[in-house]
Amino acid sequence: MKPVRIGIAGLGTVGSGVARILVENKEDIRRHIGFPLELTRIATLDKSRFAPSGIDHLITSKLDSLLKDDIDIVVETIGGTTTAKTFIESALRQKAVVTANKALLAQYGMDLIKIARKHKTELAFEASVAGGIPIIRVLKEGLSSDEIISVKGIVNGTANFVLSRMLSEHQEFADALKFAQESGFAERDPSFDVDGIDSAHKAAIIALTAFGYPAKFSDVWYEGISKITYQDLKTAYDLDYKIKLIATVKKENDQLDIRVHPAMISSSDFLAKTDGVYNAITVRGKYSGKTTYVGKGAGSHPTANSIVADLMDIAKRIKYGGFGTVFPSGFDRLSDFKIKQKETLNLKYYLRFSAVDEPGVLSKISGILGENGISIHSMIQVGRSGNGFVPLIIMTHSALESSVQKALSKIDRLDVIAKPTVLIRIIDE
Fold it and tell me: I want to staple 315 with a disulfide (CB 3.0 to 4.6 A). Which of 4, 144, 254, 353 is the partner?
């Protein structure tokens, strides 16, 4: 049977991983779908050292060559939101595109889907969220008959590795991050991962897929993990919690809550048990209840595997009809949500103050909290810092985010407070 021909744009870590699977697993793929996927051309300016041998004759420096008729499906692994956007827009007017470009999708995903629908082509992006976990397919197919209530999870393997390392090895953030970089689990510039930006991109894509809301990156508020200390992790652990960087996308009546931040979650929660470079995502549906999915969230092989799965899926539709379906459920009518504002959150809080070790400090802090309607659940004093300041930890009952922020802005201006208070939100089921 005539093959479906594949072109790859970019030959970095992910692009070379896709090429390797298509070459080395060619026969298994053919047996699975009933016809071959043929790697026909690769457009790149820099051949990757990870590329499989025997593909030199497929490589070209001309990106536009992938738009020719001898290519059926294009894989975009260029990255970024400039060249990649222009290329995908051109490609979608003629053929199907598979991408893992979360930054691009978080900003222009719905625009690209509209182009695909107009030209009866297809855009697939399973690999854009949680690497090897097929969460996009779960949401758009496996749970398509359900009403999704919330999607919550660990969607960045680097941040999860750093937090896991800090707790297990009694390390501070900088040391754990350095080890992650030396081990190949973190980029030289890790800011996208540890600052929560990567997770925020994925949260926007989940909002589109699970709720039909064309969220932009700017709709997601996010915080990273760089202020978390070993003491925070240890205190949480002693209280039967774990601290994880959690992405939340949740429907609340006519509002959509989309956020990324470090959170204390119960040690009994499956997400709390997910350590290292693994991701875990929990989906709560009206009828299906709670389902959880775990797998490696990053790296060449898991991401490339998800891309090839999309290729196989599209190729079957090309061969057997039905090509042009962007989503089984369609997006003819997008959901009309208001984005929930950060200030309206009502949560419990862990607050770590760096306070002068003298009488009366606690009364000053608790007084300001009380003035803002914040009730204290418990208080912990952890040793002494040796410089005249002591870590003072307060756990609150449920309170409005706006009230907590107002109180902290006043507390942090006190002359008995050494540095800005560390706030970690507590997420209870």
Answer: 4
342-427 CATH pick, 3.40.30.10, 3.30.70.260, 3.30.360.10, 3.30.70.100: 3.30.70.260
For residue 416, what pLDDT band results from cuts at 50, 70 and 90? very high
Q: Which of 95, 102, 152, 202 is catalytic?
A: 202
CATH 3.30.360.10 for the 135-296 domain, yes or no: yes
Distance CA 143, CA 287 (A): 9
Report d(CA 120, CA 334) in Å as an integer: 19
Torsional class of 79: left (φ above 0), alpha (ψ -120 to 50), beta (otherwise): left
Residues 307-340: pLDDT tens digits?
999 999 999 988 887 654 444 344 555 677 899 9
The mean of the pLDDT values for the chain is: 91
Distance CA 288, CA 280 (A): 18
Q: What is the CATH code for 4-124+300-320?
A: 3.40.50.720
Q: Is 114 a catalytic residue?
A: no
pLDDT per position as a tens digit, 251-290: 998 999 999 999 999 999 999 999 999 999 999 999 999 9
Do 4-124+300-320 and 342-427 show the same overall fold?
A: no
Domain spans, the chain = 4-124+300-320, 135-296, 342-427
- Pairwise CA distance, residues 132 & 306, whole Å: 6
Three state DSSP letters for the chain: CCCEEEEEECCCHHHHHHHHHHHHCHHHHHHHHCCCEEEEEEECCCCCCCCCCCCHHHEECCHHHHHCCCCCEEEECCCCCCHHHHHHHHHHCCCEEEECCHHHHHHHHHHHHHHHHHCCCCEECHHHCCCCCCHHHHHHHHCCCCCEEEEEEECCHHHHHHHHHHHHHCCCHHHHHHHHHHCCCCCCCCHHHHCCHHHHHHHHHHHHHHHCCCCCHHHCEECCCCCCCHHHHHHHHHCCEEEEEEEEEEEECCEEEEEEEEEEEECCCHHHHCCCCEEEEEEEECCCEEEEEEEECCCHHHHHHHHHHHHHHHHHHHHHCCCCCCCCCCCCCCCCCEECCHHHCEEEEEEEEEEECCCCHHHHHHHHHHHCCCCEEEEEECCCCCCCEEEEEEEECCEEHHHHHHHHHHHCCCCCECCCCEEEEEECC
